[in-house]
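Hi everyone,

Forwarding the result from last night's run.
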Amino acid sequence: MSSNAVIESGSDKDVKDVTEQSVEQSKPVSRFTRWYRSPLFNVIIVGLISFTQPGIWNALNNTGAGGQQEPYLVNGANSLTFGIMVFGCSIFSILANKIGLKWVLVIGTLGYAPYSAALYTNNRYGVEWFVLLGGATCGIGASALWASEGAIALGYGDVKDRGKFTGIWLGLRELGQLIGSSIQLSLNVESGKRGRVGYTTYLVLIALQCLGLPLALLVSPPNKVIRPDGSKLPHTQTNKSIKEQCRRWGALIKRKQFFLLIPILVGFNWNSTYLGIYLVNYFSVRARALASLTSGIAATGANIFWGWFFDLKYFSRPQLARITWVFLAV
């Protein structure tokens, strides 16, 4: 085949793709479809998934040692979880460009409930090995969830809406901690002694976490999202080879912005381990549940505030980044 024929063949393919996309965009879309495929609906669904997964996990963890009597086993499980996430988040971010954000998000909903079930089993029957296995499944699920939920929450909407969408997404996540800790406090309000929470606490929280999978199936893939003005998301990803994605990932982690984020990320996750050990050693079950509740209330309000703040027009984006970095560092 001559080079001219190849060019003509490629041109015909491009014209065909453009024509098919134009025909698809010209099809009439019902009001329900526009709402179901809208960025706002998808961000709310992602927020509800965060509510059921890391939100409930935070409610348990901020109670101290996952509600257990001693922190040592849960500390080992948490170390396993975060150790897997160090590599898992990068792996799933590359995989998302191969199988799609939606299916990575679905995988992310499968790891949290087994960990909570392991805490319940150990609390009631003393099965310690299951807690470590649950920590591993939680690490895999969290890696997939963290690699996909942020991309959906920030990438589906316009730039002008990203602060608002971030507030909705993270506000709903912290609402999970708030409601989960409220349930814990109501079930353990009479327990004024140090020890472990009642095992019925876990049953309610496990049921909430099982809602994550059906919610994830409601999320629209990027190519089906319809923005308020009727436009589709731009198709920026053209090379989906694993080798190319690894090359881009390697270039990304060499940027100075990546290293500037490390202190913030360390500070963000420090509380997840330190606070739990402190609470379980010095406070009663009731006080631990109350601490988790007050932490959830503060975090929910803070996420809504920062979402509003980031959409303000008074500051440029570099200025907002510096203000946020200084505030978190202090």
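The two ends are 65 Å apart (CA to CA).

Cheers,
N.
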